[in-house]
Design a protein that fits this description.
about 200 residues, about 40% helix, 2 domains
Length: about 200
C-alpha cells in the first residue's frame, strides 16, 4: 500500500487510495491481533506503534476525504480509533502515552500527521531489524528539508515540533547537540527560531 500510494518524497495520493481503503482497514485489523508483549524488544514495540499511528492517520483522512487539513476533522487526536486487547486508543494516546514514553525522541520524525509541515510519511513500514537505520534516516531527511527546517552553522530555524516536544530532546544545548549530530556539522548560533507550521494536507 505504501509503495503504491506514497511517493519517495512523502506525498500521499489520497484520491486514489480512497478507492482501496479497505486494504488499510484489513491491515489495521491484522495489526490489532498481534500487539507487542512484555517480551517484545523496544525496537519492535516502537515499530509497531509507529506503523499503527501512521496507518490510523491515513485511515482517518480517507474516511473524511476530500478534506483540506486534518484540523478540519473534529477531535482527530482524541477520538478512539484502535482497539488492542479490549483497550481503546486514540492517536493522542499512542503518541503521548506510548511512543513518547519509550525514550526515543526520533519517533517525532517517523509519525506523520498528514500535513505539509509534518515529517514525511515513509513509503515502507518500520521494521524491528531496520529501526535504527530508518529512524536515523527519517531524522536526517526531516532536518535537511529546508521547507521544514533551516539549519546552517550560524542560523537555526526549526520546525515547531522542537517547540512542542522540546523536553523530549533535553535542554536547549542538548537539543542543539542532537541537531548538530544529525546534520553533520557544528552549530555556532545559540539562538533558535521556529518556523510557521503548515497544516494543509500532504497530498
Amino acid at each position: 500500500m505504501l509503495k503504491k500510494f506514497v511517493s519517495p518524497s512523502g506525498q500521499v495520493n489520497y484520491k486514489e487510495w480512497v478507492k482501496e481503503q479497505e486494504n488499510i482497514e484489513n491491515y489495521l485489523f491484522t495489526l490489532a491481533q498481534f500487539p507487542p508483549t512484555e517480551r517484545t524488544s523496544a525496537a519492535a514495540q516502537i515499530a509497531y506503534w509507529i506503523n499503527a499511528y501512521n496507518a490510523l492517520t491515513v485511515q482517518l483522512i480517507l474516511k473524511h476525504y476530500p478534506v483540506k487539513s486534518i484540523k478540519d476533522i473534529d477531535n482527530p487526536w482524541d477520538t478512539e480509533c484502535f482497539t488492542v486487547k479490549g483497550k481503546e486508543y486514540t492517536l493522542g494516546a499512542i503518541e503521548h502515552e506510548l511512543l513518547r514514553k519509550m525514550g526515543e525522541p526520533r519517533i517525532h520524525f517517523a509519525i506523520n500527521c498528514a500535513s505539509v509541515s509534518c515529517p514525511k510519511l515513509l513509503n515502507e513500514a518500520y521494521l524491528e531489524k531496520k529501526m535504527e537505520l530508518q529512524l536515523t534516516e527519517a531524522t536526517r531527511s526531516f532536518l535537511k528539508d529546508t521547507s521544514k527546517n533551516v539549519i546552517t552553522q550560524k542560523q537555526v530555524k526549526l520546525s515547531r515540533i522542537f517547540l512542542w516536544f522540546g523536553k523530549d530532546f533535553g535542554s536547549k544545548s542538548e537539543r542543539l547537540d542532537f541537531i548538530a549530530k544529525a546534520v553533520g556539522f557544528p552549530l555556532e548560533s545559540p539562538k533558535i527560531e521556529y518556523l510557521p507550521y503548515d497544516w494543509n494536507l500532504n497530498n
